[in-house]
Amino acid sequence: MNTLTVVSLLLIGIISTNMIKQFIPKLPETFIFILVGIGLSFTPTFHHFELEPEFFMLVVIAPLMFLDGQQQSFAVIKKRFRMIFTLSVLLAAVSAIAVGFLSSWIESAWPLPLAIALAAIVVPTDAVAVKSLTAGTETPTGVNNALELESLFNDATGLVILDLALSVLKNGHLSLFEGLAHFVFVAGGGVIIGIIGGFAIVWVRSNITFRTLNPDTTVITISLLTPFAIYLLAESAQTSGILAVVATGIVHNWESRKLKLTSTNVQLTQTTIWQMIATLLNAVVFLLLGIALPTVWQEITAIGFVATLQLVGLAILIYLLMFAVRFIWATYQKQGQAKDFFGPQHTKTHTFNARVFATSGVHGTVTLAMAFSLPHIIGQQPFPFREQLIIVATIVILLSMIVSAVALPLMLPKKQVTYTQQQLIATRNAMVDFAILQIRQQMTDQQARETVTNYLQSQKGWHATEDKQTVTAAYQTLFSQTQTFIANYLQSQPVMTAYPDHVILAYQKIMTLLMQQHDSEAHGWSKLRQNISRRLRQLVRRWQWQRLQAHFLKTHPAAQQTADNPQHAAWQALITDLLALNDAVDTAVNAHLDDLLQARVDQKQDTHDIHLVRRAFNHYFARVRRDYDTSQPLVDSQWYIQAFQAEYSFVQQQVATDKIPVALATALYTEINQAQSLQLQQTQLEA
């Protein structure tokens, strides 16, 4: 299978899902990924696709579990170790035993080890899938923590139990002591390798960080390779690679807390990269689930309708049994740490949280990967009932997702929104307007001031308003008013006193020509063609002028003496006066628009049309200036810092006066931080 084609199709699937999600926002994203994956299965690349468990565990699950470990505090793990062991090991083992005996009792042809293998396959839960299915609801914090801690290690528990069951099927016997010893070796060995390997990698990373000037590339690359190296090392030692990468992730969490504010650039960049990788891999997980479903469907059609109904019934009973085990376990947990997860015992809150915990036992692609990991040959014999086990596991996955997608939104309250998108946009716009007014009052350089203004205005986004018609009408009105303002300003006594009539007349003609071009310009392709045509005419005229000028100077050497050329001197004087008048008009127009902006801000009115008009006239002034002055403004980065500080002050003032909630302020603080980081990067590139 061509790797490039596979990666490209998966990325196309992710993009397609994000586009489809905009049209059907009520459908959980998980199901959209699965449906898109089913669509991808019809491509030649994924036709008859069967999930390769070893590759899947290494490339997808290992990085995700490493990241999950990084998000867990070592202090919390130490404090709640007993509860984690109960959730991830004891609950998983009890569920596996119960499901195993149920399956063996219903399917009498299945030996008990085979039924235990099926039970081990359906044990792992997927907290990421639960979050996707409950995106619009408020899951109780304690239940959410319990689900995350449960899924942190129960994948490894299921894998170890599956390995034990396959060993019994292969060898025909296994004593209880041997089973426990094997479990301790695999699980404990994985944790030990993860801890030792994690500390070794942390030591290497720390030395590189503190002893080199630019450690970013090396340290981040080591971080990206860490889960793969640890997983392969643990698996080669016949221990649990999943537990190893989780343990290494926890060690790396300890490292980040130790570094504190040291090497902030490395930590921020590394966090951003890992968040993006996690987002992509979580999407790939559900895409692969959808891609694999048609293969399972082919196996369903192969065994017949009656046999399929029997397997569906078994899958339903397995799901109900696991639901009952989870509910009973959560309901009758003793006080102590369980109280933090489910609330006081024998209360309605405790019962409700136990029911939510039981319903949230969603199974995902790890279960399907474990099902496909069943060998075709075991003990020199064909693996018995392999297709049936894969079918049951798939039905349990789909059943758990469907039940959770339907039941949890009905059980849980809707997520409380502390602010709306409209409030965010309005507050952001007010913040930007405040910063623009503050910075424009302090800056004297016109070109630098307009550069900073446009930069800040871009924070509003290219679609700062949805009422296009109203803004367009307001823009046209203000544009016409500004034209009138310029005409009156040019006829004012100070201007007529400072500049000769022919200079004012020439400037009026230039501005009239620019306004006519503005009125005649169309949108879309027509405007693009006009711009290209205008640029070509300018190039031709410039080339013709250079040829005529060269010919004239060649035939009239005396004309090169500008001091003795009255026409040239008059031309230079006209240019100087035009540039000075253009700067004066520029200053007057922007001062007029600043006053209007301040009035709009005070009255809490929309200011989008002011920016559009300012940008249009600044473009005209720049065109006049660019014809004779090609210098580009250089903006001191301190002005940007002051502008962002003004935005911080605005948000702080809004919070202090209870005009906006803290959550909205946090969102704006994040935007300001990101904008400031981006601006500093751009400044470094331009330096």
Automatic annotation (TrEMBL):
The entry lists its GO molecular-function terms as:
potassium:proton antiporter activity; sodium:proton antiporter activity
Please list every transmembrane segment annotated in the UniProt record, as residue ranges. 31-49, 55-77, 84-106, 181-204, 277-297, 303-329, 356-378, 390-412
Listed A to Z, the keywords are: Cell membrane, Ion transport, Membrane, Sodium, Sodium transport, Transmembrane, Transmembrane helix, Transport
Q: Give a single Pfam family match.
A: Na_H_Exchanger
Q: Does the keyword Ion transport apply?
A: yes
| Domain Cation/H+ exchanger transmembrane, residue spans | 8-412
Q: Where in the cell is it found?
A: Cell membrane
One GO cellular component from the entry? plasma membrane
How does it sit in the bilayer?
A: Multi-pass membrane protein
The highest taxon in the source lineage is Bacteria
Q: Would you tell me the protein name for this molecule?
A: Sodium:proton antiporter
